[in-house]
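Tutorial, part two.
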Amino acid sequence: MLLAAGDVAEAATVRQGVAAFDRQNYVRASQIFIPFAERGDPAAQTYLGIMFETGRGVPQNYTEAAMWYRRAAEQGDSLAQYSLGLLYDRGLGVPQDIVEASKWLNLAVAAAPPRAREARVRIRDAVTSKMTRGEIAQARLRALEWVPSRER
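Running the prediction step on this input gives:
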């Protein structure tokens, strides 16, 4: 029995997608991640965001990267929150918005794994240094009001 390309991806796991990504087999990784991401898997969404941001295995597209990062970030994925915050800071794929950037970076720091925390704090603080007191307060309020939501 022959399997269509989509069937092969369906038979794979997110972990196999990560392994393909780590081997720099980005086309294969994207084939594995896309169906999982479309079904709401935040890890697959984050990896797709990285791939669209960097143009690995897919055409570089910041708008597409931001969309995948947002879907994962809204579910509480810390790396996606960090990456989305950076896109807002730079205005890549989204309108430049320092308050929204700071909100996502604050959330990313709060949920950061220990080995990533220090670097994320430095970036968050660099973004905060460009903000007014009012903008900082607004960003903190947005972060406090944020609640993760799983995709259905």
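Confidence is low (pLDDT under 50) at residues 1-10. In part three we will examine how such features are distributed along the chain.
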